[in-house]
Amino acid sequence: xxxxxxxxxxxxxxxxxxxxxxxxxxxxxxxxxxxxxxxxxxxxxxxxxxxxxxxxxxxxxxxxxxxxxxxxxxxxxxxxxxxxxxxxxxxxxxxxxxxxxxxxxxxxxxxxxxxxxxxxxxxxxxxxxxxxxxxxxxxxxxxxxxxxxxxxxxxxxxxxxxxxxxxxxxxxxxxxxxxxxxxxxxxxxxxxxxxxxxxxxxxxxxxxxxxxxxxxxxxxxxxxxxxxxxxxxxxxxxxxxxxxxxxxxxxxxxxxxxxxxxxxxxxxxxxxxxxxxxxxxxxxxxxxxxxxxxxxxxxxxxxxxxxxxxxxxxxxxxxxxxxxxxxxxxxxxxxxxxxxxxxxxxxxxxxxxxxxxxxxxxxxxxxx
Length: 368
Fold this sequence. Notes:
Number of domains: 3
Radius of gyration: 29 Å
Order of helices and strands: HEHHEHEHHHEHHHHHHHEEH
Strand order of the largest sheet: 1-2
Distance between the termini: 114 Å
Number of helices: 15
Number of strands: 6
């Protein structure tokens, strides 16, 4: 009897042991699978070398850096990155521009960033919003060995412009219109860029166009659903940039311009007249002759009712581009800014003139 009970107990013990062994094997399998997946997520995004200049701004957190690395296609997974920096106890990086490569693993990239081995020898150039391509050329000339003439020679190289049109979806044959001063005006996105000492015109242009591609691609659905084509959107955004300071105002200004276009009115923008006669904003007032002379850029001149300028009149920031994609609807047809940058909107020409009178009386009228 005792022998039977012992055998029965052994059988009872075997079942829990089997279950425990299965559970242990399952846990080991999950851990192995998770480890393999984690290592894959930390592996390089590409087997081919592709150098990337990666900028870390002052105050950017370690986790925000991970998001930026993922957005710029330098690492596979921000989640895996976060886990790894947490395990390492990484708290901050030094601000600077780092030379990374898409063939680097996330582990190697973090090692470079924590080592503070950033490129101190490069050239940083900041291109501000609202600047014309003439001003961009001057900034390049001041910071590099590239002359303004060399820059403009490349802009006038039709074969090169054709190659860019083939490469970038947002560049169309519209930029080759014979009346356009500079084919890439408005398309070189303003930002701070880092270049090496031997940088070429082509590298500068295409680095800026790559940034434009990155920004514009975020809004492809809105671009495709717009009543304006991409060249017209870029042209209008360039005007909005210089006509308004605040984001909310820019959306209102864009809405006013749409109202005027839809009604067959001229845009009446001083910004376009300054550009038409190659006068930098803020240097002087326009003359009556300039205002009243036809030019395909001058929306204050004759024969421009219901028309946009032939092309952009400056570069512009993302908020101005969003403004023309998502304008604020209103029944305003006029606006004017005072010295503080505040924009005053009105429905009729008479109301517009009254606001101008009030601003002048209050010595709040902009004069150059």
